[in-house]
Structure prediction request, 334 residues.
Amino acid sequence: MTQSEYWNRITNKAKSEDRPFFSLAPMEAVTGSVFRRVVAKACAPDVFYTEFTNALSITHPIAKKTTKGRLYIDPLENPKPIIQLWGNNKEDFAKAVAEVEKDGYEAIDLNMGCPDIAVIKNHSGSDLIRHFDTAQEVIDGARETDLPVTIKTRLGYSEVDEYKTWLPFLLKQQAPVLTVHLRTREEMSKVPAHYELIDEIVKMRDELAPDTLLQINGDIMDYQQGMQLYKEHPGVDGIMIGRGIFQNPFAFEKEPKEHSSEELLELLRYQLDLYDEFVAKGIPGHFAPLQRFFKIYVRGMKHAAEIRNDLMSTKTTDDARAIIDKIESNGYDN
Prediction:
């Protein structure tokens, strides 16, 4: 399967419905197999990504053991997620892509926008925006595979205007998809995404890489907001939602509707059950990261702050289920 064939498979349905393709953003300690399946149950996007993973760790004799959990794909996941890799060494990527292809992954995304300071100190993620030569080596290393290789980045590192040189460099790589988070690394999420630049970026793409699909990321909370951007900015092909999923696990619903507390608690029970299954498979898992999801399910409930505090004090999934039982028996109304 060629790079364009893979993405044609993903985008054909979206095009037939006169909409962009939608994806859930790769998020550290969030978009593992368990939560991907939770989102799929609520309402699945067209594309899922894994948590971002260090390319070096994929084949490192010791570090590869720690990637087992973040790279796990459940047999029931359909479509399979795209693996997102970060790093700064061509050889690391060449080895990694060969390994993940054997593991059944069908596509690769390169992280060139992560603002995390530890990643930047590793001269990776958004630090690559300041080092075109290293970015080129990463791309070349990742392309030592037949799998589609896409890129996710930010507008610049320190200044917004850096997009005028950085994005053309990336577009000239003729990747099947370029995802642009519409902020710089320095801006983090402290300012609104720069939607005012979308049309200019579309024009860049049309001139330099007309076959590259352009996906937009930043401050998009749900399907409806994504569709509005799509209509306002012709030429955008994809919409990526990140933090919006923490506001609403049903963010990808085409027809928004109110969801009851019962539905949300059922979804939380489902995540707890999947987590137990995950651990039972012998895959390393820690309860603490699971706690970051609790706020998703209790937002808007009566006594939400108290419920969340109680959930955050739990140590096991059974403890969390006991809290759910208390909610369902109106225990918080006493």
